[in-house]
Amino acid sequence: MDAHFGLQSTWDYYLNVHAWEGIDGKGTATLNRVHYGHGYANAFWSDACFCMTYGDGDDPTGTWGFKTVTALDVAGHEMSHGVCTNTANLDYFGEAGGLNEANSDIHGTMVEFYARGGTHGSEVPDVGGNWTIAEQLSHLPLRYMDKPSLDGLSPDAWTLALADMDPHYSSGPMNRCFYFLSAGASSDSMQSGFTSYLPSGMTGIGNTKAIRIWFKALRDYLTSGATYHDARIACQSAATALYGANSSELAAVQNAFHGINVGPSAGLPDDASAPANVTVGVAGSSDTIVFTGSATDDVKVERIDFLVDGIVVAKLNATSGSVQVDSHLFANGHHSLQAAAYDSSGNRAVSAVMFFSVVNAFTQVLQNPGFEGGNSFWKMEGSAEIGITSALARTGQAFGILGGKGRTGSPVTGSFAQRILLPDIEGLSLDFWLWTSSTDTSGIPHDNLKIQLFDETDSLLLTTLATYTNADAAATSLDSSTPAFIRRTLDLSRFKGKTVTLKFVAEENADTLATLFRIDDLFLGRQWSDPDQNGDGLVDGIDLGILIQAYGGSIPTSSPLSDLNNDGRVDSADVLLLMKQFGQRKSQ
Q: How far, in Å, CA of 46 to CA of 377, rounded?
């Protein structure tokens, strides 16, 4: 009954308030699945089945878990993910990920106000609902829209760091912005609705006008990769289209965003000048390489991102400087490099593209080994997630996550897997960094992470290479902000030359304690690289010169500079000889 009431209320809200029929705007029928799993403490919308799924919760008392997941604002929240897919289709990473979650929180809240406010016309009442999210699930709400930081994790205002946060937390500032737009901001610093960016407060425009502005922005102006500053521009455009360029509604939009540190207050000019003079450089082509960047701005350069082949791999919180990066995270060969500079208003400018080469005696055979490409090349199941937080990643901004659930009343499993052809070389090993945190301090192994090899079909277990448990934890808090990665190296030599499935499998038992495994910077390499270093189709002295330069010019003095094997010519044999010498040196 609760599930159907949630679907009915959400459908009526979108149809009557926004003239949007159903989830996709076309009236396509949907359905509910209830009593999903066993002790399943979640609800979710699936675009694949075009349906809602609800578990029964994991704690009937709501003391430490969820006593129900069919709350009205939860239903509206989850189905609004489907609406988002059919409108702006906001990405689920970066600042767009926070806007995606905020959109669901905003509409879920409006569904609650609409269904419980005593009217079912085209208006959303300002009474009947509340400004907390999922307060019926347990003894505390999941999120607070008037002051997001009350949950202990969500920020109250925009900073560039939002792009690196879990979307459930980076949604906080947009939730608060909408609260200000609808209900206003307080001038009393002791109130949860106070913001130092609007010390005199502001008057809200009510639920109906606020949500019509947001929905029009979502439907007509926002795009998939939108930032918070893009959201401000979109809402300004929506307010102008609905209420006019000189309207009090437009001024309220500007003040509400200023209340979360996005743009100036009404009547003041925007900072529209992006950083200038953005430069980028690189030194080295093997082992540790150094990226350098610089930029200028009329106010302040907040951060410089370094993008390799279009993916952010390192960040610099300064106007200029350098960062060190492990070149083994990139395949041998040519790569593009750019620097992207951001100012304090979120304006962005990028450098010209430059190219660099990676020339390592060992080259990576794993695809996306640092998870910087999200889940690309990895088969993810169960509790597996990608973390996007540069402060917690070992390098770059991403890392793999397994476990960390607990509180379920039943075991939880998750895995990352990738099929690979292992090089046919001696001394083959898997190298990765593991950070284990657990609230289980008993010292008795209850939760575990297994590193396993399966056959290429992922059906036959070949071996378990290693097992790590809660007893190996470096911290007792899952939310620790201090990374504690430990390097792990596992021997794969007896499987050289085979095609296998490498799998990281985590299992948490049924108790209420949780163990979180963070994985980053995997390396599984093969010795030497393509002799044709410059890719011109020839193996000659130029390729040899590239290798000599890459490895510091250290070659045997007893041989001619280029004819290393003294056979009277410079060819692939000389290049391979040099590769082998450096490969042996690195393995010692």
A: 22
CB 43 within 8 A of CB 74: yes
- The band of 556, judged by pLDDT with boundaries at 50, 70 and 90, is very low
Per-residue pLDDT band for 255 (boundaries 50, 70, 90) equals very high
> CB of 541 within 8 A of CB of 569?
no
Enumerate the β-bridge partners of residue 31: 51
Please name the residue that has the structure tokens 């659930």.
405
Nearest to 426 by CA among 294, 584, 539: 584
pLDDT digits 0-9 by tens, 166-200: 889 999 999 999 999 999 999 999 999 999 999 99
Alpha-carbon 442 to chain mean position: 32
Strands 354-358 and 333-343: antiparallel
Shortest CA distance to 330 belongs to which of 503, 159, 529, 147? 529
Report how far residue 313's alpha carbon sits from residue 397's, in angstroms, rounded to the nearest whole number: 6
Work out whether the CA dihedral 250, 251, 256, 258 comes out positive or negative. Answer: positive
d(CA 354, CA 290): 14
Nearest-5° Cα angle at 258, 256 to 260: 80
User: CB under 8 Å to 416, separation ≥6 — which residues?
Assistant: 378, 379, 380, 384, 400, 402, 503, 504, 519
Q: pLDDT digits over 67-117, tens only?
A: 889 999 999 999 999 999 999 999 988 899 999 999 999 999 999 999 999
What predicted TM-score, i.e. pTM, was given to this entire model? Answer: 0.70
Catalytic residues: 78, 168
Task: Check: CB of residue 257 under 8 Å from CB of residue 173.
Answer: no
Strand 31-33, strand 51-54: pairing:
parallel
